[in-house]
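Below is how a single chain appears once it has passed through the pipeline. First comes the sequence as given, then the structure the pipeline wrote out for it. We keep one example in the README because the format questions we get most often are answered faster by looking than by reading.
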Amino acid sequence: MKIEIGESLMLSWLRHAKNCQLVQLNWKPSVKSWESYNDAVVESMMKDSDQYFKGKYSLDLFKQNSSYSQLLQQAEIDALGMEVGGANVVQNIYGIDVAFHENGLNYGSKKEETISRVLKKMIRTAMAIHGYFNLNTGNIIFAAPKISAAIREPLQLYISELQELFHGKGLNFRFELLCNADFKEKIFNVVTTLSNSVSDTSELFMRSIQMYNLFVDDKQAMSLPKTATKTKKLPAVFKGSEVIKIGALVSSSFERLIANDVLTEQEIERLQRLDYAKRTFNITYPVLKKVDSTISMTEQRNVNGHPRFYADPYKINGTDYLLCNHWVEELSRSYFDAWLRRIDETN
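Resulting structure:
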């Protein structure tokens, strides 16, 4: 099966920046096998949005679709991701369509055709999530690295109106257009920065960045290579870091700090102390834990029966350490950002 580079990029973004345990590319519903939910609401999602945009902007969104069931049969989501929490509860679901047109997004001879196609994709994705997953919340994203202002500006307006239209139905979907600078900062830069800590050969975009970094000059590198040699530092809190979950930010930052050999012996000792972790990061476990070769790794990772440290050790100055994996976004991000900024500014 052919995988587009944009889809591979979104797969890596969902897995590593959005913590989605389940990601599928080119998702399609099994309309004859799956039970459907909320049929009346799903039908109104199509009809009401069609009437709204046709009446206000003369946009014919569903001209080739006679019914909502026909529209759902044609549904295909480029990248579908689910973040599942405790008790198998879906905490976040993402439905993403991505388009990579080098000369700028273009689905037809007129800009109205392109705008209509994007809106249709986003509405259909929301209908599929509500109809087949029985969820009334989710993140519906259209992503493209290049969209001209003539298309982008009205499209952003229409997407915000679409969100308000659905909110009026009690549907809390978040519709978002990520393009141009937003695409670069929130998706591309994030994934290339995280590429150092990913070794899955099935992630084609990640692997292409890793191959590029084998040969590129340090000043041009998209992300830091895994080497003990000091290289150009990334900023402590780079643009787009707010879209990386705190756990991914911590692990990728430690990859960088260790690669650049900027953690002093004194700081490594402090990172192993619980009082320092509480005061500096507002967490309840030491940041680092020295690996004891006489104890099983499972036992060393667990605290009260729960794994509170990542499985793969980090080697610092010849010694293996486990890194704490128990970080809470609301409690620890500002503390970690401040510590990371201090470390970078002193090196």
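Strands lie at 22-27, 77-84, 90-98, 137-144, 172-179, 288-290, 302-303, 306-307, 314-316, 319-323.

See the next section for the split statistics.
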